[in-house]
Amino acid sequence: MSDPVARLDGRLAPLLEERRQAGLYRRAEPLAGYDGAAAVTPDGRRVTVLCGNDYLGLAADPRPAAVLADKARRLGSGAGAAHLVTGHRTEHEALEAELAALTGREAALLFSTGYMANLGVVTALAGRGDTVAEDRLNHASLIDAVRLAGARPRRYRHADPAHLARRLGGAATLAVTDGVFSMDGDVAPLPQLAAATEEAGATLVVDDAHGLGVLGPEGGGSVPATGCDPRRVPVLIGTLGKAFGSFGAFVAGSGTLIDALRQLARTYIYTTAPGPAQTAAALEAVRIARAEPWRRERLQALVARFRAGARQLGLPVPERSGPSTPIQPVVVGSAAAALAWSKTLAARGLRVAAIRPPTVPAGTARLRVSLTACHAEADVDRLLDALAAAADHHPVEPSP
Ligand SMILES: *Cc1c(COP(=O)(O)O)cnc(C)c1O
Asked: Is 114 near ligand 1, meaning CB less than 6 Å away?
């Protein structure tokens, strides 16, 4: 075992085997082409995609694609440097202005991905000696951000303002929460969380990756959808890779916040700026999302159809209060059960990935169903039929 590659592989092989044994082994299945509702497999089969984040169906819309192609021909395919060197372009400025307008803020700052936006923001605003309260079901990138900042994490019970108030205990710097929880699809009670945060003299940070574009007038997100005053959420994070069907992310807030992040956020400073063609395409997608409310209305109608059907069939779809979202988990229990359900659906041409620990707590493995404005009623009905068949063959194992 003196060969260095063999030595490393020898260390990794048991980890892989452990994951396989636990039903947690994952692979990335390649698809060839996608139209907003369905994809084609490399061997030519059509599968309906019911677990993506392209809620408004903009990822395959020809208009942003046309902007991307046109801009790429004229400007090239990359930014060539970080923003603070020579990578910053008029396309980035235009998108930042549009995102500030969408979210009702003074300014916005682009990041390459939402993961990087979260790391950049939390590490800029908190450090060793600070305490950060976080919802225990926050997205992995927020959890990682608090860890990387070296701040003391204080987890509070999911969407529980009273527990947040106790965890803040007068000493915290930040409270961070998803706006729409990525694996559960429920909306955070933002006015109540804001009140608890203000009481403790801390700052509320909301990652609205799944709310922007989908909820609120013009897709302004969970802040307007919960009736929360934008000033009570001084730091708002969004991604362009979900409802806007594009790539990239941003932070929106006061001019001072954005100026500070430009100086302090290491994931903004030490990385190549997004390509200007990609950024121009994202701007086109944001404009379309704002201007075409029928996409949000259509999505809500499909979600209502799914929920009514699921309730009638007795499927394990959690009850929900608050605004409805396109993320509709079907919680089946063990990782093995989630895989079995997913396979039953796959046999019927429906793709819904099994979400297993550590992405969700043990015993709550699930099919994370999500819909887009491009699905047909018939797609929802086929999904319900397939879920009913899966429930017959693989009973739900109650959570511990
Ligand atoms: C997807 C997601 C992110 C990461 O965004 P990317 O742009 O895909 O890196 C961050 N936060 C939440 C809540 C998400 O769901």
From this structure: yes
Residue 365, domain extent? 26-55+293-393
Q: How far apart are CA 273 and CA 81, in angstroms?
A: 6
> Burial, 322: exposed, middle or buried (Cβ in 10 Å; 0-12, 13-18, 19+)?
middle
pTM: 0.96
In tens, the pLDDT along 328-380 reads 999 999 999 999 999 999 999 999 999 999 889 999 999 999 999 999 999 99
Report which protein residue has its CA nearest ligand 1's atom 4.
114
Distance in Å, CA 239 to ligand 1 centroid? 6
**Sign of the Cα pseudo-torsion (166, 167, 172, 173, in order):** negative
If asked whether residues 50 and 67 sit together in one domain, one would say no
Reported as a single tens digit per residue, the pLDDT across 249-301 is 999 999 999 999 999 999 999 999 999 999 999 999 999 999 999 999 999 99
* Residue identifier of the C-alpha nearest atom 8 of ligand 1: 114
- Judgement on whether residues 275 and 341 belong to the same structural domain of the protein: no
